[in-house]
Amino acid sequence: MTGHDQPKRPVTVLRNPHLSIEGIQLTSRHDRTREAHTQAASLPEAPVLHLYGCGLGDLQLALLQRPGLTRLYVHILNGALFRLVLQLLDQQDWLTDPRVELLYAGDLPEIQLPFFALPAELVLADDYNAKIRDRLISETHLSFNNRLFSADTPDIAARLVAIEPWVRADRDVAELFDLHPGREVFVIATGPSLEQHYPALRAVAGQPERPLLICVDTAYQPLLKQGIRVDLVVSIDQRISTRHLPGLGSEGVVLVYMPLADPLVVEGWQGPRYVGYSSSPVFQALRQRLPRAQLHAGGSVIHPAVDLAVKMGGRRITLFGADFAFPQNRTHAGWQDGELGPQADVARHWVLDGHGQRVKTQLNFRSYLCELERYIASRPEVAFFNTSRSGAMILGTTFHGDFVQ
Fold first, then answer.
1. DSSP E strands, 283-394
2. Is 318 exposed, middle or buried (0-12, 13-18, 19+ CB in 10 A)?
3. Which of 27, 66, 103, 318 has the fewest C-beta atoms lying within 10 Å of its C-beta?
4. Burial class of residue 155, CB neighbours in 10 A (0-12, 13-18, 19+)
């Protein structure tokens, strides 16, 4: 078995035995067997199970005790680490079981269910398996991340009540669907790489025959300051205020929003307004009273913006500023570091950029990237292009020859 990365971290073999790499324990140092049985108990009694990470073999042995298990797929998250374990400890008990199939996690484009992911190896995953690691973490954190988005949460409930008159009055986003069949669409986000494209976007925006320009809410002001007027702006976040989306000068620009939008933003907007929902349960009651079309949601405004581009008829969609990372140690284009979220200096996670190098990011950005990649994979009829190698590599896109930097 050949690893894709060599373990360069300090390695400590502890008694009993245990393994620690740079302070990261692969297993419990107190009772490995009990820990493995606790982990196994979280998995259903299914004939096929998936284990991400190899550990020291304890969880594999616990799962193989199940008489109804016919196949156990063990997905390696760090090849060099697995090779090290093989050198230090005998793993034949589970490796020779005919029900076990061993493979690299990164060899498959998507995670497999039901699964258990060993926490230590999510931290130690190598570059080759990073995309699957990100999907595993995103899936594991899903219910935790959604805990704040409940219609019973006081601030959410108050916002839904305040916005309802506007939802009732404004037009259904479905009216925009299929208006531009086959038209090229630029979807503009606020990653730092956007600043590289201001001159090109300014030139494109002034052309009579040009792609449709859709931007996310936080990109609207930076683009305006550069003299770039878009056709549509998409907003979903209750924290977006008139500071981000001022009404002055918005004539002729379409606002597409979801019902967590600030009523002051909606009231002040001078261009046409359209409203839609996501599939989130937070909108269930309002959706029943006031039916509107849905846009795809994956945690970030980039998801409904891209989905809108597709549903309007776009078949060539080019992404600008979709970095999902902090290239050059910056968070956003057109805003000070930390104005729209955590500062770049506190980032402790990474993704691979378009050069195959690690670039700093945060966990929620990695989840947003996973969801966009899944969406792109579900739309094979659409060609997606990226314009920067400095941000995260986006599976399913190709680099646009006229804009890539």
1. 316-320, 349-352, 358-361, 383-386
2. buried
3. 103
4. exposed
Q: What is the pTM of this model?
A: 0.85
**How far apart are the C-alpha atoms of 322 and 190, rounded to whole Å?**
7
Token pair, residue 202, equals 């300014």
H or E segment and range at residue 255: strand 254-257
DSSP state of 19: E
What lies within 8 Å, CB to CB, of 36 at 6+ separation is 27, 58, 59, 61, 62
Question: Is 263 in a helix, a strand, or coil?
Answer: helix
Give the pLDDT mean for 258-270: 97
Amino acid at 394: I
**In angstroms, what CA-CA distances link 59 with 36, 96, 232?**
5, 15, 51
- Please state the length of the chain: 405
Could you give phi then psi for residue 267, rounded to 5 degrees?
Answer: -60, -40
Helix, strand, or coil (residue 167): helix
Could you give the angle at the alpha carbon of 208 between the alpha carbons of 206 and 214, nearest 5°?
65
3-class secondary structure, 1 = coil
Range with the poorest average pLDDT among 270-279, 337-346, 379-388: 337-346
At 367, phi and psi to the nearest 5?
Answer: -65, -40
Reported as a pLDDT band with limits 50, 70 and 90, residue 141 is: confident
Check if the beta carbon of residue 325 is closer than 8 Å to that of residue 360.
Answer: yes
Domains of the chain: 11-146 (3.40.50), 149-399 (no CATH)
Under 8 Å between Cβ of 298 and 278: no
Place of tokens 């039916």: 291
For 177-191, the DSSP string reads TTSSTT-EEEEE---
Distance CA 247, CA 264 (A): 9
Contact 317, 396 (CB under 8 A): no
